[in-house]
Structures are given as structure tokens and as C-alpha cells.
Amino acid sequence: MPDLTHPLVIAAIILAVLCVVGVVWWAIARRSHPHGVEDAQTTPEPPSVIPDAVAEDEVHAVDQPLQDIIESPSVEEPPVEIPEAPMTRMQRLRGRLARSGSLGKAVLAVLSRGNLSEADWEEIEDTLLSADVGLAATDEIMERLRTEVKVRGDVSPVEAQQILKQELLAAVGTDMDRSLHLDKAEGPAAILVVGVNGTGKTTTVGKLARVLRAQDKTVLLGAADTFRAAATEQLATWGQRVGVDVVSSEREGGDPASVAFDAVKEAKERGIDVVLVDTAGRLQTKATLMDELGKVKRVMEKQGPVDEVLLVLDATTGQNGMRQAEVFGQVVGLTGIVLTKLDGSAKGGIVISVQKELGVPVKFVGLGEGPDDLAPFDPESFVDAIVG
């Protein structure tokens, strides 16, 4: 029997045990991995896969800043409006006058009675005076009416209408120049717009810009009402709607004369046809403010002559509007009147009185709040509308 303590025997036993263990381990591994142990040990891990839903450019965009990935929504400018043509405006305003022309209706009602008594003539006279026709103009109209009726004898309603139209048309006047002087050989036509507080002056400037744009004129607005920030904003809104720029002061309360000067200068440099300058509303009784208005005009004239000075009057103010017109005329020399709120009421007679007293024509009238409710004044249309 071999010696189990001999080193060679011990080594042989250990080797045999290792062989048995190896055979057992190999058999177990074979059952677990039928394709072989080597395959199980060397099979690589699958690579990371980008989902099909993620595009290649989106993968590269991960490193980009967030503001480059998210596009800001584009802000579109509001479309430029096409203002209504002047002739269309006149037809529409004439219709409004005809629907509410109380002046003509009241006078015609008396004239059509026939065999007029003195009380009837006094009623006609009161109607004209209450319509703000003015005392002097009323006296002239009454004298001509009496003469015409006396010559004809008793008149029919149709004849009364013809007589009244004839006399009112003579009083309104058909020979006055009511056009805007816009055609110049050099530089822009300069228009200064003035008036007291509350007459709708800034709104009128915006509406007048629409009238000029409808005539294919290029326009620049000057916001010389520097004491009201709202006036500048309002003017900018009007300009934006028809594609017209506005020159304004950089600070509230700036020098209005400087704004007016800069507006005319810029219009000249840009080859603009017409520059419209809005001014702050002021009471005709305030000497300091009226002097400031005179300065605005003088400074504008350093760039060239002021072609039009338009006074905006509220037709409903009646004879008080006449006193306003007189003072403004003395300070800046008016060339025309814009009558707002001429809705065909009893105050329509101010058209006659303001022209007679000042010798200044009414050039534009406004009959509503719409953006195109301003039209060139036409005497024939006005008289036809209020008489019927």
C-alpha cells in the first residue's frame, strides 16, 4: 500500500481532485450555455440605440441653446388701411345731413304756409338765429326772402324750397377757395392745425391724414402737443393705420416749436408731400399760450412758408366758436375752418356766420366718430341736404 504521506502521492491526489472539479464545472456550464462557455463569456453588450422618433438633427440640437431650439412667434404688423375716397365720404355725409337737417325743415314749414303774416316772418328769423346763422347774415337772408316772396306772391311748397336753397347758397358762398394748397415746386406743403381744448383737434389731424392718403399723398405728422403724452400716442395710432410716420418730442413737455421745426425738416429731407402739425389745445383768452402758438408758426416758417392754418371748431359751440376763430385768426392767420360735429342740428348755421365774419372758408366738415367721417366741404351738397 503506498505511503499516503509521501509528497508525490499528495500531489497526485490534489491533481486528481482538481480534474474531477473541472469536469463537473464544465458539465454544469454546458447545460446552462448550449452554444458553449466561450460564447457566453465573450458575447458583447448591445450598443445604445437612439429611438426612431428622434431625428438626427434633433440629437445634435441637444447641445444648442434653448432659445435657438424654440422659435419665437412672429409678430405681424397690422395691415395698412385704405382710406375711403373723398367723393364717397361726401355722399355719405350728405345723407346724414339730410336725415337730420332741422334748419331747412323748420324754415320750409313756414314758407309753405302762404300769405305769411308778420308772426310767420318772425318765426323764420328766430329759426335762423337759433341755428347760429348770425345776426348780420340772418338780416340779409330775411331781406332777400321777403323780397322774393313779395315778388312771387303766395308760393307753393316747391317754390318755397327753391327760394330757400337759393338764399342759403348765396349766404354760404360758392366763390370761396376751399381747396388745400398742397402743390409746391419745392419742399412739403406745411399744414398747421390749431384749436381750443375738446374740439377733437388731434382726431381731426388723424382723419385729415387719411383724406390725404386717399389722394395718394405721402404724409408726415408732427406731434407738437407735447403737454399730453396721450396726444402723441393717439397720433401715432392714427398714423400707423395708414402707414404714416410721426415726429415727436423725446420728453413730455418739450418745446412744441422744435417738434414742428423737426417735422418740416424731416419731411423736406425725405421728399414727403405734406406735413401735418398738431398743436396743444388752448383757450383763446390765454395770452401766453397764444403767443406760444405764434412762435410755433414762426419757427416752422424758417424751413419754408406755412401753406395752411386750419382752425378746428366744434359746430355745437355756436357763437362762442366765432370768438375763438377771431382770436386765432389774429395770432396765426387762418386759411380755413374744419367744423366737427356738424350733424345737421340747429347749429349748422355756424358755417354761414364764421365765413361771413372772418372771410375764411369752411374747408372740411365732420359728421361722425368713424375714421373716414371727415370730408371736404361742398356748399351745394350742404344746402341741398339741409333743405331736402
How would you sum up this structure, described in words?
- Mean pLDDT is 79; it is low at 33-75.
- The protein has an 8-stranded mixed sheet, with helices on both faces.
- It folds into 2 domains: 86-172, Four Helix Bundle (Hemerythrin (Met), subunit A); 189-378, 3-Layer(aba) Sandwich (Rossmann fold), CATH 3.40.50.
- The protein is elongated.
- It has 16 helices and 8 strands.
- Helices cover 52% and strands 11% of the residues.
- It has helices spanning 7-32, 37-42, 56-60, 66-69, 86-100, 102-111, 118-130, 135-152, 157-172, 201-214, 229-241, 256-270, 287-300, 319-332, 350-358, 379-387; strands spanning 189-194, 219-224, 245-247, 274-279, 308-314, 336-340, 362-366, 374-376.
- Helix 6 (102-111) packs antiparallel against helix 7 (118-130), helix 6 crosses helix 9 (157-172) and helix 10 (201-214) packs parallel to helix 11 (229-241).
- The chain has 388 residues and is of the alpha/beta class.
- One of its GO terms (molecular function) is GTP binding.
